[in-house]
Each structure stands twice: as structure tokens, then as C-alpha cells.
């Protein structure tokens, strides 16, 4: 399908600053045994302990265990490197393992050795978010938890994984935005709950037990690491109640209520002057009180130390320890509680009952994981081992996820896909064209193997390669060398003799208006950090073996945005009085380079609305104040909202020449009350269609769940008046009234 025989590829990159450059954690080792308690086969006397009796309920077992421990032993179980009690048959346990997009070596709980040299490394989460595929989110989690269990069985991983990261990607300068599903709370909520289900749900359907334990982080309003001297360790995020409840909190709420996550991690920062890890309202009040968390609350690592030494929030370390535990904290990543809990009790700031409550939540999680059930190799997942890590099916799934997430942002007619039989020379230029580890993003593990972009392209056509720069900072551009290898296709876009395909490998958006406007740059692809099989996935899309269906999960702003918007301003909504433009597609009022949801296909999909209401009536009691007075909105409370829903049916037809998937995003624009979003995502679905085939997409819209908004005081409301539904260019208006 390509018109040109000489094509230039530019592989560009936006530098995403992360906190730590984690190195390879690899050592030769012989087979090991997993860490577990209640090994009655080696110590028959343990049968006499109720906490080792698998026939009893979790609470009974936990109470029995707690009652057998001394105070010092109890304190040993409120930190991540938990100290075992040999007299009770309990070994040391490391709580900190990571599995953001595959089993990771970031935490001390995971080790890669000659026994298991690598694990499947899926695309970084931002690119997975771009798939808008909820079933895929869960499937990835299921594969990751299987590999995690396999590694646990040979002593190379724990059972508690501090993933996913569901913070909102609020500002394009946040380097860790790559770890998140994007800027939208609905997408982040659906991703978080689905990934958690994939990690945690067991194949036997037992909902009271866990395959592995997930952890949703970092709670809450956390997305600043280091900006102009403002550090994550002491940053005070000043957040309105409205923004907190309609932007920052929904993913965590969904993680707990819809995903039944086993843990939530509180963040370093303060929210409105209070450290999140020592805020009773946020921890005991919301997570455990309102949302009924069945699990444990853990700090980000050394958060308690930062509360005392960096934030100076308390006068003594003991006060910090007491405040955190009394606020609902159960586990400290770090040694702060090891060092200061006893002193807090001695001073009367804490009592043993407070410690009992914390460790009971921790032990209950381990009970649900089977940690106290004896040898895990005799349990449900006991047959898993090294053979179940990096399987061909798992590696192929990593490739599938990458190509489903890749976003085609520009495509001049006749540019992509390229035909491998028509291409005579392919010049591949750029420092990211032949990278390996860069493709993984951060919080990575050792992958099964790598396929670089250059390797992926070379598998289909002959290529010539020149990095163009020594590294991604590109202090000195090697233009002459690039020209030589490009031969007839000049490396400079405005004098190139063939089309230029710009491939952007990055953990966020950037200002590429120049490329969008330049007719010589015929196509632009955003490939995120595409994981171990990224190069193969990129080639699949470029040569048309796969029809792209990814959509941007974040706004791409012009450079002027970051020049004038302080990263410390947490307000989501614009302020016309100051010229502040707001944040994310829901509120931002300024120009964009590319918008949330943008993405092209090699096919064209037509949409036709088959079913949608023109009027939605909300029943109210006769004495309701809104029957006698004019109301702009009504409370979205249970008695009002029961069974108020409607269906949207959309017929989709593939009128192109290639089979492909249409990513259907359903948005709504509510009436302009309560500083409502200009539009917000209601839901998304994917539909695969062959050429000229059509299918039906159905959305069920719950009025109070999907159409509601949060008012200035944090109350959820349903706006009365005209609502507009959007799917692509198609719009439909309907009224909500009493």
C-alpha cells in the first residue's frame, strides 16, 4: 500500500525522569523452597495451634495467632521486612514485591536467578491504558499473578505485590505518569479494578481467598516528585473537595469496591495540610469506614520518616508512629515502626490493642493467601514453577497488548501501512530505534527476551540504521551520518525524498506540532514504552499485519502550557480570572496538540445511533423541594436513583478494506452546573469487524452512576436539563428532568 520505495523512520523520545535507575537483580541459584508458615509435616506440633487449622474461619485463626504473640513479636509484624517467630513456625516474610506490568525486581521480595532468569514484561501501563480494553487489563493481571505464584513456589517472590499505580496523570511533566492508565478517572477506575481482579481472583472461584494480593497506590492526590524544589516527600497538595471526590478518589474507590483489593498504599505527600499516612479521615474514615477495605493499609516506603524529619508534622518520632497507627495504618514500608512503636506505647500514645488491630489486618491478608496453610506446593497453585514463566502464550500476549495500544496519530493517505514487497530501502534513524531496556519503562523486571524496533522492522525488510544521536538527550545530532545511511532518503524531513514516519517512544505527550504540520512527515505513531516485544508490535502496525486501534489516554499539550502552569497547582478546573486553563480533557480550555481519545485506524468505521432516549425522568416524592422550587440538580442518593437506567445501542460498520477493531468511547457533556466537566467518559468498548461488516455496541447508562457529577461540596448530583452524548463525531441530546 506504500507509495514510496525509500522511507525514513525517526524514533524520538520524551525524557521521563524517574526516581531510581534499578539495575538487574540476577544471580545463579539452585532450586529453593517457598516461604510459608504452619509446616506441620516438618513440625507436627503446629497442628495444635488454631491459626494453623485450615478448617477454621480467618478471624478465629487470626485472633488465635495474635493472642500467642508477645508485644515485641507483634511490633515485628508492622513493617515490610516482618520478623518471624520460630517457636510458632512462622518464618520471616518480605511484604514488598512489585508487579506493575510484570513481575518486577524493584522490591526486595523478588529475585531473578538462573532458575527463573526473567518474567513476561508487558507494555508500561500508559500504553496498556491506550487499548481501552477492560478484559485485556484483567487478563494481563491473571498472567502476571500466575508467573508470580510460580516464582513464589521456588522462593523467588512473595505473595503481596504493591501494584497497580492508579494515580491520575494530571500534568505532562510527571515522569511517573507512564505507570498509570492515564488522565481519566473512569479509565483509571476500570483499569485498576480489572487488573486487581486479574491478580487476586483464584481459579477455584473462592472469593474469600487470594491468588496474590494487589495494592492500589499512591493514595491520594499524588503526582509530583520533584519540581522546582517541591519534593514529593513534603509537598502539600491543596485540593478542593470537588476535585478530590470527582478526580483523585474514584480510582481508589473502584479498586476497593469493584476490585476488592487487598491493600491500599498511602502516599508521601500531604493533602490540605495533613500527611496522607497519618490522616484518620482518609484512612480509617474513607478506606476502611466508607469503602470497607478487606485488607491492610501500607505506607509508601519511609513515609513515616518523612512525616517527622521532612514535613515536621509531629514533635517526636513516637507521636508520628502513634498518629499513623491510630489513623488506620497497618504496615510500614521501612523501619520507622520497628524503632519507635515501643516508645510510643511506653509514653501512653499507643496501646497494645492498637497494634493488635494493625497486625490482624496483615495476618488476615496472609491467611487469605494460604501463607498459614502449610506447604503451598500442596495447594491450588502448587504445580506452578519455572516452566510457567515466560511461556510462548504469555510472550505473545505481551506483543498483542503492545500492538493493541499503539496509537496512530497522523497518517497521510497512502503512507501507512507499508508494503514489505514494495519497500526498497528503509532508513531507521534515532537513538530509540535499537533500544532494549528503554522499551520496558520503569518498575520493570528482567524480561523473557527483547525484540527491538530495528529487529522488528528488519524481520520484514532490509534496513540501514543510524542512531542520529549518542543518546536520547541528543547533545550533538549526527546529521551527516544519518544522511549517509539513509542514502536516497534524506534524514531531514523537509528535504527528504521519501516519506518520513515519526515513531515516538515515550511515557507521556509532547509538543510535536512541527511534525503534525509538516507534510513530509506523513505518519506519526505513539508507541509508549511497549515492553519486551515492542519492536515486533511496532513492525506489526507499520507493515499492516495489525490494524491500529489504540487511543490516547492523555492530552498532549503545547509547550506554552507547561511554561505558564505551575505543577503545584492541583486545581482541575479552569479559573478565567487568572487565566488558569484547567487540566485534562475534562476541564482544559486551551489548545492541544492531540486530545484524549485521539487515534486513527487503517479502516474507517461509521457509527449510527440505533437506540437512545430523548427524555429521562427522575421520580421524586411529592413533597420534594424540587417539585415546588426550581433546581439545577438533585442529589444522587439511593432512594432517588434506584433502577434509573437506559440503553444506548450503536451500529458500527467497517467501511474500509482491512479488518480491524473500533475503539468506541462514549462521552457525555452535562449541563453547565456545579463547574461540571465540559465532557467526561461514560464507558468504552472494542468491536472487531471484517471489511464491510457491521455490529452492535450496547452501553447501559445508569443515571446516578454515570451521569452524576460532584458539586462544590463533594456531594454527588444529577444535573437537570440537556445532556449530550458523544461517540466520535456523532452526537445525541436528551433531557433529564423530574
Characterization of this structure:
InterPro entries: BXL (IPR044993), Fn3-like (IPR026891), GH (IPR017853), Glyco_hydro_3_C (IPR002772), Glyco_hydro_3_C_sf (IPR036881), Glyco_hydro_3_N (IPR001764), Glyco_hydro_3_N_sf (IPR036962), Ig-like_fold (IPR013783). Keywords: Glycosidase, Hydrolase, Signal. Pfam families: Fn3-like, Glyco_hydro_3, Glyco_hydro_3_C. This is Beta-D-xylosidase 4. GO terms for molecular function: hydrolase activity, acting on glycosyl bonds. The structure is a single chain. The protein has 738 residues and is of the alpha/beta class. It is 26% helix and 19% strand. The chain has 21 helices and 29 strands. A six-stranded mixed β-sheet has the order 14-18-17-1-15-16. Strands 20-29-28-23-24 form a five-stranded mixed β-sheet, with no helix packed on it. A three-stranded parallel β-sheet has the order 6-10-13. Strand 28 (721-727) and strand 29 form a beta hairpin. Helix 5 packs parallel to helix 7 (250-257). It is globular. The model is unreliable at 1-5 and 13-26 (pLDDT under 50).
